Amino acid sequence: MNRQQIPVVVLAGFLGSGKTTLLNHLLHRSGGSRIGAIVNDFGSIEIDAMSVAGQLGDSTVSLGNGCLCCAVDASELDEYLERLARPAAGIDVIVIEASGLAEPQELVKMLLASENPHIVYGGLVEVVDAAEFDATRERHPEVDRHLGIADLVVVNKADRVPGAERERVLEVVRGLAGRAAVVSASYGRVDVELFFDRAPVGERVGQLSFDDLREDDHGDHHDHHDHLHSAYESLAFTSEVPMGPRPLMALLDSRPEGLYRIKGYVDFGTADPRNRYEVHAVGRFLRFYPQPWSPGEPRLTQLVLIGSGVDVPALEKELEACREYAPQAADERSMWGVLRYVREPDEEAAGDPADF
Questions:
Q1: Are the C-beta atoms of 12 and 102 separated by less than 8 Å?
Q2: R_g of the chain computed on alpha carbons
Q3: Rounded distance, CA 256 to CA 298, Å?
Q4: What are phi and psi of 47, to 5 degrees?
Q5: Upper half-sphere CA count for residue 31 (Cβ side, 13 Å)
Q6: DSSP state letters, 4-68
Q7: What angle do CA 126, 131, 135 make, to 5 degrees?
Q8: Packing angle between helix 245-253 and helix 312-320, nearest 10 degrees?
Q9: 181's torsion region: left (phi>0), alpha (psi -120 to 50) or beta?
Q10: What's the pLDDT tens digit per position in 274-311?
Q11: Hey, is 289 helix, strand or coil?
């Protein structure tokens, strides 16, 4: 992905699900990465903002008194994103913590419609309270729809639910979430690699660095619950043989349930000998960035795939089947499937907002 484009993650969920706890966990576990946060409280007293602000300094933007999704257009959101996405800020990922009353579908549409060339959609993360899941569905039946459009679902507060009941809730959530990755967590403790790539500690310095953050006062009391935090599967795939555009796109267009993130570079061989294609995928969102090969650069495909509940050996076999061992004559039409997901920086984001 173009390093100037910063992933923007929408963190949604109904009141009390644990969004702020999860965000604070991400801040404490960010390693050398810098997180910019947009905290959207509903009401005149910004409780969530107060619990996050002070840790982030100038990299926190609090919207206050109202839902971000109620804005008439995306211009206001772009103003806040511009403050965090400016190259001088050195932010690696932006997290929008939505109000518990926000409509995540509208937030996603606003991000996809954003004309800010420095950002890219980083996924919709829906947080649900395992202990209150049934009651939440009764009060807010729209939670089913929210789960259906999520890219990652965090079933939080799993420690408060007995094992059999927890499995029942997870089964229901998976059924509602479709292809989304579903993970369980306690105290919002998810593996941060699901959200972003942690830079090595000490690699970057400056006032927006979080390397020196300590765990909050609650963290040390819950170490015995760490076995409940979310796990994920990852696959690192490398090929010296070019990938066939058609079989690879067939795989990507029907990627398996639970596969949350894909990143890396693809060599399409004779289909486009001048460029390698950087790939960025989160949930159902997919984008390619063609980049000229550097002189003498090894021509490899290198991909990392991250998800939950993914059959890694089967996925690796599917990727291996996409290799094009016998070089094919140049065929521009073979790249059509790839080019559907190539956008210039100032064009509308890949993906159809209508899908949300």
A1: yes
A2: 20
A3: 30
A4: -65, -50
A5: 14
A6: TPEEEEEEE--TTSSHHHHHHHHHHT-BT--EEEEE--SSSS-HHHHHHTTTSGGGEEE--SS-G
A7: 80
A8: 150
A9: beta
A10: 999 999 999 989 999 999 999 999 999 999 999 998 99
A11: strand
